[in-house]
Design goal:
alpha/beta; Rossmann fold; transferase; methyltransferase; tRNA_(Gua-N-7)_MeTrfase_Trmb; EC 2.1.1.33
């Protein structure tokens, strides 16, 4: 008989830890601000209201990059709390700089693998939404298995959402957009808010990279699904 307990703990990582240069300012932000705005990964459920010091809608941000969009969204929506996940230190340092510059108090950061955070720290029926913007497309066919948006991950994520909670994905790779649409459409607990791809919601800011791509005629695809209510 196969022991599935250990197998359930292993997964193919959707990222590679690169030796990105951390600037002096980013390192200073990590040293001085991460103790306040950071949450250590531990394999036990996280009390989200306690982590933010209030009861408010909770949105999960997976893979926030350099944090510009996360900070913009959080500043525009002070009524929400944003739990932001990223593995790369330059991005963590940059988001902490933005938190300081904009005096934001509705962001908390976990610098750890999103799959493990979701599995071990986020309780079922606790999230009001989840954002995954421009995840690594792993565009070579032999690397597609590393893509984050696959059925087992979405099946896990959907249970963390409250009924009516949403998943918002965005990508600028058409074949990944098609895979995302197929995966989300196949999840029985989710319902698409559009016929296929959704218009970009006003709360998601255009990145500089995205603006350049759009001027060159490149496509960007947003998907917005909600967890079905009983």
């Amino acid at each position: 008989m196969t022991d599935t307990t250990d197998l359930s703990k292993r997964h193919i990582r959707s990222y590679v830890l690169r030796q990105g240069r951390v600037s002096t300012a980013q390192q200073r932000a990590i040293d001085t601000m991460l103790p306040r705005f950071g949450i250590h990964y531990v394999a036990q459920p996280l009390n989200l209201d306690q982590a933010f010091g209030r009861a408010a809608p909770k949105i999960l941000e997976i893979g926030f990059g350099m944090g510009d969009s996360t900070a913009t969204i959080a500043q525009a929506h002070p009524e929400n709390d944003y739990l932001a996940l990223e593995v790369h230190s330059p991005g963590v340092g940059n988001l902490l700089k933005l938190i300081d510059a904009q005096q934001l108090d509705n962001i908390r950061i976990i610098q750890h693998d999103a799959v493990e955070v979701l599995r071990d720290m986020i309780g079922d029926n606790t999230l009001d939404g989840a954002h995954i913007f421009f995840p690594d497309p792993w565009h070579k066919a032999r690397h597609n298995k590393r893509r984050l948006i696959q059925s087992p991950f979405i099946a896990q994520l959907v249970h963390k959402l409250k009924p009516g909670g949403y998943i918002h994905l965005a990508t600028d790779w058409q074949d990944y957009a098609e895979q995302m649409l197929a995966v989300l459409a196949a999840e029985p607990l989710l319902q698409n808010t559009a016929d296929a791809y959704a218009p970009r919601p006003a709360y998601r800011p255009l990145t500089k990279f995205e603006q350049r791509g759009l001027k060159l005629g490149h496509g960007v695809w947003d998907l917005l699904f909600r967890r079905k209510t009983p």
